[in-house]
Design goal:
Helix content: under 10%
Largest sheet: 23 strands, parallel
Radius of gyration: 26 Å
CATH architecture of the largest domain: 3 Solenoid
Number of strands: 44
Oligomer: single chain
Mean pLDDT: 88
Number of helices: 2
Length: 500
């Protein structure tokens, strides 16, 4: 994707359904406010393995016509896609739906087609409550199934807790405004894209939705993003961003050997709030990547909750707790803020800020070849704490801007590097860099190669550096003050000869 050879990830989109015109199985109207069991809509003497899609559509129609609730409390099987276009009210009493991945094809409002269990389409004021379990029967790595899709369902109150197993996509919420969606649990999200040939595996996909609130999301053995704020144009060809949405805490574990997993992937979002994320084994925690095809959408003004996790070296070229990257300036990332990140990293990066601006209260990274990299971007942080770094603790590339109140480098370099904060022109495009730090503290603490240079920049001058204080104890003060690389006069950095 750029000179760093970041992996191109074509993250998944949801899958969708098709309309059915059906007559209830012997159902008649009833007084408003009453309720019925879903079994009333099934054929007499039905087998639990019979397809219930026709009965599901009939139950939704009856619920809307009578302003009444249909209750589900058994185990049911879905073969064909059930497309519901009514303002239904369903209550799930620990119901189970076994969803076939080889059934009928459903159609979204924008014409996209794919395999899906239940499609709620143009069903404004939909009401779902209780708890329900949707189980796919496909093969991991090849299923194309999506469990539930909500397409243009405004003011939906989907407060049911839903669990999805063995699918490509658990739930997709598309172009839904002013809604409330409950908690999502998932396992085994691992398959192929419902539309296309790429890989898939996401618990919740959200596209083009505004002022909508989502509950907690937990997904185990997740192949791609647990939560994916994605992009797709609607039936009129409009690029509608996710805007002013609120997302609950995201937790999970990555599928083994995945090179594309993340806790949260953000390709579209304006003014959204994320409660945070906790996970282990993922390639990325927050993956904020925009592709050239994302023109018309934006990522700007989002508040990202704290991130905690362990991010191993997976073999992907963009291992990072946080990565913020755009394929071109035409799809540049805006300004986002974050509370804190606390991560153990074994791959290339801890925080890789390669586009846009990020303001963060606290960054604490242990490990990573380069724990913090800033190029073609701006990072503002109150506290930065680095330990067990492979090379330099902080890397600033071309067009990089780094502003920090406190930098604490707690160990030497495990890979033999001799600089703490380094300008490296191999990162970023052409353009001046700038570093402003109030205080830089370094202690080797008996770990790694002792640093010779706290700050190293062979190319720029004092106009590019503004560092008020450096605290190195007694370990390297003599070498630093002799001017091996950079030294300090009247509180400002002055360049002198030297190489790390």
């Amino acid at each position: 994707m750029n000179g760093l050879q970041l992996s191109r990830r074509k993250l998944i989109a949801g899958a969708m359904g098709s309309p059915l015109l059906l007559v209830p199985f012997g159902c008649t109207g009833s007084a408003a406010g009453s309720s019925r069991s879903f079994e009333d809509f099934m054929a007499a003497g039905h087998d639990p393995n019979d397809d219930c899609s026709r009965a599901l559509v009939a139950a939704a129609r009856w619920s809307a016509e009578n302003d009444a609730v249909v209750t589900f409390s058994g185990r049911y099987r879905l073969v064909d896609c059930a497309t519901i276009t009514n303002r239904a009210s369903f209550h799930f009493d620990n119901a189970i739906f076994d969803v076939s991945g080889r059934g009928g094809i459903g159609t979204l409002s924008n014409g996209a087609r794919g395999r899906i269990g239940i499609l709620f389409q143009h069903a404004d004021d939909l009401r779902l409550s209780g708890a329900v379990h949707c189980r796919g029967d496909g093969m991991a790595g090849s299923t194309r199934l999506a469990g539930m899709v909500f397409d243009h369902c405004n003011r939906a109150r989907v407060q049911a807790s839903v669990r999805y197993d063995n699918m490509a996509v658990g739930c997709s919420v598309m172009w839904c405004d002013d809604g409330i969606f409950g908690d999502v649990q998932a396992s085994g999200m691992n398959g192929r894209q419902t539309f296309g040939n790429g890989t898939a595996g996401t618990a919740l996909v959200v596209i083009g939705s505004r002022r909508t609130t989502f509950g907690r999301i937990d997904s185990t053995e997740n192949y791609k993003p647990v939560l994916y704020c994605s992009v797709a144009k609607d039936a009129q060809g409009r690029a509608i961003d996710n805007e002013n949405c609120v997302f609950g805490l995201v937790t999970g574990t990555s599928a083994r050997r995945s090179l594309e997993s993340s806790l949260i992937a953000l390709r579209s979002g304006r003014g959204c709030t994320f409660a945070g994320a906790v996970g282990t084994g993922f390639v990325c925690g927050y993956n904020i990547t925009r592709y050239s095809s994302d023109a018309g959408f934006a990522v700007d003004g989002n508040q990202l909750g704290s991130l905690r996790g362990t991010f191993p070296s997976t073999g992907a070229s963009a291992d990072a707790a946080i990565i913020q990257h755009a394929e071109s300036t035409a799809v540049a990332i805006g300004s986002n803020s974050m509370m804190a990140v606390e991560a153990q990293c074994s791959g290339e990066f801890g925080v890789a800020l390669l586009s846009g601006e990020l303001s963060c209260g606290r960054i604490e990274i242990s490990g990573g070849r380069r724990p913090v990299v800033v190029s073609d971007a701006t990072l503002r942080a109150d506290q930065i704490m680095i330990s067990n770094q492979g090379l330099e603790a902080l890397t600033v590339g071309q067009s990089g801007r780094l502003y920090g109140t406190s930098v604490d480098i707690r160990t030497g370099s495990l890979g033999g590097a001799r600089a703490g904060v380094r300008y490296n022109p191999a990162f970023g495009s052409s353009g001046p860099m700038f570093v402003q730090l109030d205080n830089v503290r370094y202690r080797q603490n008996g770990t790694g190669t002792n640093l010779t240079y706290i700050l190293y920049d062979p190319d720029n001058g004092p106009a590019n550096w503004d560092v008020a204080n450096v605290d190195v104890g007694g370990a390297i003060a003599g070498a630093l003050l002799e001017g091996r690389a950079l030294n300090f006069r009247n509180g400002r950095v002055q360049t002198v000869a030297g190489k790390p």
